[in-house]
Amino acid sequence: MIALVGLIGMSGCKKEEIVNPINSRTIKFDIPAGPNVWKTDNDGLRWYYTVDLPELDNAYFEDGYINAHLSFVDDIYEPLPTVIQQVVYSFNYGFDDKGGFLTIFCEASDSPRRQITPPADLIYGKLILSDSDPLN
């Protein structure tokens, strides 16, 4: 009898989840082909390319999320980090007084001491900026 009263009393409770829509923006960019496009900071052990990203404002930097993809072949995007032909591609991003930026890195995946040649072909990039609500 007590269980029946408890069941009837609890059936009147309604759990409601309020979900705010998450907005995201996609920004496409190209890394041009050419021998002087990528820069190295340690004699060819690691190469980098920086993309100015004015869409990355302080709100995205503090509370949002960035997802980066590269395409070396038409119609196939690889999410970063990824390894292609013994080269690992990764990224980081930041925001300073000049605005937002994203830096893509490439280095040997099999040895931290092996020099590599940076990509010489055109690479297509795609960034996804997603909103997020801060928890605190």
Secondary structure elements and pairings:
Elements: H1 2-10, E1 24-31, E2 39-40, E3 46-52, H2 58-63, E4 65-73, E5 76-79, E6 82-84, E7 87-96, E8 99-108, E9 123-130
Antiparallel strand pairs: 1-9, 2-3, 3-8, 4-5, 4-9, 6-7, 7-8
Short description:
By secondary structure, this protein is mostly beta strands.
Describe this protein's structure.
The chain has a five-stranded antiparallel sheet with strand order 2-3-8-7-6, with no helix packed on it. Strands 1-9-4-5 form a four-stranded antiparallel sheet. The protein contains two helices and nine strands. It has helices at 2-10, 58-63; strands at 24-31, 39-40, 46-52, 65-73, 76-79, 82-84, 87-96, 99-108, 123-130. The chain is elongated, with a radius of gyration of 23 Å. It has 136 residues and is mainly beta. Helix content is 11%, strand content 45%. It has one domain (23-130): Beta Barrel (Elongation Factor Tu (Ef-tu), domain 3). The longest helix has 9 residues, at 2-10.
